[in-house]
Amino acid sequence: MKQGELLDSPGPGALVRVALNRPMREEYTYFVPPGTEPEPRVGMRVAVSFAGRREVGIVTELPEETDVPASRLKPLSAVLDDEPVLDEQLLKLTRFMASYYACSWGEALAAVLPAVLKREGGRRKVVQLRPAEGVGQDQLAELEDKHEAQFRVLRTLLEASGPLERNDLLRKLNVSLSPVQTLERKGLVVSERVETGLDELLAAPAAPRAKPDQLTPGQEEAVAALNARVQQGGFEAFLLRGVTGSGKTEVYLSVIEEVLAAGRGAIVLVPEIALTPQTVGWFRGRFGQVAVLHSRMTDAQRHDAWRMIRSGEARVVVGARSALFAPMPDLGIVIVDEEHEPSFKQGSTPRYHARDMAVLRARDAEAVCVLGSATPSLESWENARQGRYTLLTMDKRVHGGRLPSVEVVDLRVEKADGPFSGPLELALKGVLERGEQAILFQNRRGFAPVLWCRACRTAVRCAHCDASLVFHKRHQRVVCHSCCEEQRTPTACPSCTAPGLRFLGEGSERVEEAVLARFPAARVARMDSDTMHRREDYEEVLGAFGRGELDVLVGTQMIAKGLDFPRVTLVGIISADGSLHLPDLRAAERTFQLLSQVAGRAGRGELDGRILIQTHTPEHPAIVQAARHDYLTFAAGEMALREELSYPPFGRLARVVLEDEDAARVDEAGNALAAILREHLDPAQAQVLGPAPAPMALLRGRHRSHLLIKAPGRGEGLAPARAILQTFAERTPRPRVTIDVDPVSML
Ligand code: ADP
Ligand code: ZN
What we know:
Layout: H1 3-8, E1 15-20, E2 28-31, E3 45-50, E4 53-61, E5 74-75, E6 78-79, H2 88-100, H3 105-112, H4 115-118, E7 126-131, H5 137-143, H6 148-159, E8 164-165, H7 166-173, H8 177-185, E9 189-194, H9 199-202, H10 217-232, E10 236-242, H11 248-261, E11 265-269, H12 277-287, E12 290-293, H13 299-310, E13 316-319, E14 331-337, H14 354-364, E15 368-373, H15 378-385, E16 390-394, E17 405-410, H16 422-433, E18 437-441, E19 450-453, E20 458-459, E21 470-472, E22 477-479, E23 486-488, E24 502-504, H17 508-518, E25 524-527, H18 535-546, E26 552-555, E27 568-573, H19 577-580, H20 587-599, E28 610-615, H21 621-627, H22 631-645, E29 651-660, H23 663-680, E30 687-699, E31 702-712, H24 718-731, E32 736-741
Parallel strand pairs: 2-5, 10-15, 10-16, 11-13, 11-14, 12-13, 14-15, 17-28, 18-26, 18-27, 25-26, 27-28
Antiparallel strand pairs: 1-2, 1-4, 3-4, 3-6, 7-8, 7-9, 19-20, 19-24, 21-22, 22-23, 29-31, 29-32, 30-31
Helix pairs in contact: 2-3, 2-14, 5-6, 6-8, 10-11, 20-21, 21-22, 23-24
The structure holds adenosine-5'-diphosphate and zinc ion.
């Protein structure tokens, strides 16, 4: 049959619409050559040729007819599945994601499907790297100053306690593959392909988190409300606000039991950092077969997990963000723990918020959704206030444990000597004398965040970024934390050549050193991304701390979450000020959440805990209310400010970032886009702010400007903007245009 004949009478099934993982507004139509087997259906993968290449896409529709002229219609190359790989609900959810987050349906689908389903055949393995036998400091020294990227790669591998995953390493050091290949060619580094990388997580043994004999009254009430809804069936979203240590996990476990008893399945999302063998173990301990989904799994691992879930073998899924898309049949509940965490927002296209999509997925599945947090996001808080979510509150700790007392140390009065004010030093001394444990939190890594020239009164800056260089003492180098480039520490100011640069500020490395200088007998470990290269490192340090083999844990936000050590009686926050003054509308909210979370690490056992927060702005509401454990007052005050400015949750934002090496190009495109938007948008519905230089106006040598579109209420006014933005982005190869709907960061 000739192509024309087929098209004269396109019967049902003769045409397919296919979504491809490319940034384009529309799906493409292909015709199905007669005799194609199996017959394509919606949700199946197909191979098509696109721009001269064979690509895999998903069938989204079987249209009756098309506007595409017959001469331009191309045939489907192959149907790759016998069964749809996606059900109706996930198709619907991804379509919504595409329209809401202004990306293509195919891009949204790509976030959902395990990679092995996206490509044809082919199981990728993970590449691990380690230094070659006998390679050490001598070989390393030869690379310094001449081959910077190779130097950093080899140094990191030498420091690590075992092999490192190549992709992680490239990302962490921000280097390309070529220095690694060169090192391999020189015989300094060896690589190995391995099937796994997350063994302990995936095979985490069941850890009996003994089912408590009795729920606390608060848990009782929450579980009763949730179970009632589970039994009744149908969608309802709950916001579970429970102070740290109130036993939220037990509530999740109890309601999941009820869901399973009703013959339905459960998805539990936790922040990536909280997805540990311990967490998985708790769920296995209670439910046996539990599937784990994690962004760093290999395709094969992910595919296996998917099969277990689809077949009904695993009725509980625990995972990070993308686990939301687990193909769970008859889904009964979606739980999002620590729902306020910004890491639930994906940082690349599609920039979806897993918390928001969780509510939608639950609604489509007529399931229950539980968002849990000690410090809910103001978005969820507003939804609860408006009655869209049912609020459940647990404001008492299990065991009637008191919330730890928090003292704010005013650094303007109590001059600190290095990282320690008098009160903090005294408190630490007491803890060490009593043989208890302390956590010291400082959310900056390195030794000194600023290298200051007294002569010209400037900080030494990165040549490629809007950032000051951070001094790392162990390596005797200065590092840009934005682009990861390093150099030897300058002895004179690069701009005015005056000698005698000063090291200002306290990084975690300096805090550790200061503890050891004052308390030489203390057993101290530091947890930040400079010391923790592998997940095993993390578990080893936490294990040692848990067994009492360490006295003090110094760390960045890596230690803020989930740690439950009964002998910790002191938490010192070296400075609360850093995150408070970020140019971001959520700076206060984030600071409040972080302080509350870190404070929750103390006094979790029988011993009372004490928190010291050092700050130069003790009167700031985020600090005052965190010290009082008063979420309600903080939220009320912050909400009033947001409402005045129509900021979320009283309005919605879309942010566009334009980036290019050429500053003029960025300006031009920004102005052009702003003009188009202003022309087409009704200012009562959507306001255009900018373009303006992004807070990080130079990043990795690229100039960056951004533009905000602010729509009041629930953001209906953003709809026309999305279409304009998507078309603009599609037609603008340079500068790079990034659209972020409901951004969680403004940097
Ligand atoms: P949250 O997540 O709210 O901070 P967790 O779920 O981690 O709190 O619970 C805090 C601690 O209390 C855990 O060690 C947990 O095993 C314990 N726990 C929870 N519920 C109960 C209960 N009903 N009786 C006794 N212990 C409990
Ligand atoms: Zn830089």
